[in-house]
Amino acid sequence: MLKIENYIKSDSLQQAKELYRLDVYTLLGGGTLSRLYDQSFIGGIDIAHLLGNKILEEEHQIIIQAMTSLRSIEESPVLRTWYGSVFKDCVAHLGGVQLRNMISAGGTVAARQGTSEFLSVLLALDASLDLYGIGLIALEQYLQGGYEKDIIVSLHIPCKTARIHLSSVRKNYTDASMLHAVVYRDEKTWRIVVGARPMRAKLCSKASRMLEQEKEPDSKEVIDLAMDELAFATDLRATSEYRESVCPVLLRRAIQEVLS
Ligand SMILES: Cc1cc2nc3c(=O)[nH]c(=O)nc-3n(C[C@H](O)[C@H](O)[C@H](O)COP(=O)(O)OP(=O)(O)OC[C@H]3O[C@@H](n4cnc5c(N)ncnc54)[C@H](O)[C@@H]3O)c2cc1C
After folding, report:
1. Which value, to the nearest 10 degrees, does the dihedral of the CA atoms of residues 191, 196, 197, 202 take?
2. Which of 28, 163, 169, 193 is most buried by a 10 A CB count?
3. CB 223 within 8 A of CB 245
4. In the chain, what is the straight-line distance between the N-terminal and C-terminal CA atoms, in Å?
5. d(CA 17, CA 13)
6. What is the pLDDT of residue 215?
7. Nearest Cα residue to 256 out of 211, 224, 213
8. Which fold, 162-259?
9. What integer is the mean pLDDT of 85-102?
10. Is the CB of 72 inside a 6 Å radius of any atom of ligand 1?
């Protein structure tokens, strides 16, 4: 259980950043995951009032401010207009509406959980993050590590005429997925992402490129190449062997969906 001696309502993001750099302080987004950590801190820094909670459409991009709840993302007409049901599909399994009303987009990205379907969808959409004092960086770069003590201000998603589909497998409706795959396709680009391996979501760049070279989209060659790019492991939810055997099926389904 998380223990915090002092609650700090930060005056500015600069102050929050300076305190957060000290290991005795933690940053609070929705506070839903943090409160489950078995850790003690001198201070918990609340920045919710300094970050927005809106979804905005501006100059060929959608901006999701860091304190936007997963529930708002699930219900957003802007996200639905551009990308259909994928944003609803990637968060709807997460607890109940009450929990999704509390979980923030920024906290979900910062937690970098391998099971996060929201993160995999963002990666497939080639999203970027605005980090306070740094500026925009690609989500792909952020997921490779570093930036652990940086504050996410907003998420930026390009607006493209595209198709995207999430395929996942889970035991019960509200369980985290045992494995999931997201396939994105626009006029020129394909992006294949696999998450819950159970490691962090991975972009299969070679298989995605092969698809761009107009290979038979759901050919064995493409799926085999994607499988070569991926590693799987065992955790409480599934074995590596199970994940490895299910993955080609999820990939094929997702590819067929974006082709249909
Ligand atoms: C009961 C429960 C069930 C869940 N089930 C699933 C599931 O099935 N699948 C799944 O993928 N995930 C699941 N999650 C995780 C969830 O998706 C979110 O990742 C998580 O709850 C974080 O949300 P939060 O906004 O409350 O962040 P917090 O708990 O506040 O923060 C999480 C981390 O991010 C940091 N942080 C917060 N905001 C920012 C910011 N703006 N900038 C930088 N760092 C920040 C915090 O310091 C902390 O380290 C579950 C969580 C809970 C509580």
Report:
1. 30
2. 193
3. no
4. 47
5. 6
6. 63
7. 211
8. Enolase-like; domain 1 (3.30.390)
9. 95
10. no
Ligand 1 atom closest to the CA of 115, numbered from 1: 11
Task: Tell me how far apart the alpha carbons of residues 240 and 141 are, in angstroms, rounded to a whole number.
Answer: 26
- For residues 62 and 159, the answer to whether their CB atoms sit within 8 Å is yes
Domain covering 55-158 in this structure, CATH number: 3.30.465.10
Domain boundaries, the chain: 3-48, 55-158, 162-259
Ligand 1 proximity of 28 Cβ (cutoff 6 Å): yes
pLDDT tens, residue by residue, 223-249: 999 999 999 999 999 999 999 999 999
Residues in the chain, total: 260
- 36 CA from centroid of ligand 1 (Å): 10
Task: For ligand 1, pick from 7, 25, 32, 197 the residue to mutate: most ligand atoms within 8 Å of CB.
Answer: 32
Task: Specify the residue for token string 């999931």.
Answer: 180
| Spatial separation of the C-alpha atoms in residues 252 and 101, rounded to whole Å | 33
Q: Which stretches of the chain are DSSP H helices?
A: 13-21, 70-75, 77-83, 86-91, 97-102, 105-111, 117-124, 139-143, 205-212, 220-229, 240-259
pTM of the full structure: 0.95
